[in-house]
Amino acid sequence: MSIEAQISKSIGAHGLWKQRILSAIDTGKSDWTPDVVRQDCNCDFGKWLGSADAEVKVSPHYAKVKGLHSDFHKVAASVLEMALAGRKEEATAAVGSSSEYANISTNLTREMMDWKKNAN
Description:
Blueprint: H1 3-27, H2 34-38, H3 44-50, H4 54-57, H5 62-84, H6 88-94, H7 100-118
Helix pairs in contact: 1-5, 1-7, 5-6, 5-7
């Protein structure tokens, strides 16, 4: 799969993760545990980043995306912990527009889009 296609797929998957977190906040339930979510190597994008070849790793975007992706998983796991513990208000605030979660999520998506645009 090309870098552009992988990144497009990953942007979509990132959106799905954000919906899963919101659903967990709403219901207090998830098919995922915080420990699994915290590990950035369990999702398809994390697996791709971890096994990327030298052509991918030399991109100036690679290290930044890898770091932001890891940070996203950590903060998403923290929010999931709150949601599963019934701390709905705290979890809702933790995904608010000025939250660390929102900031990392936005920066990750932006960096992936920049990488995709410059991958040619």
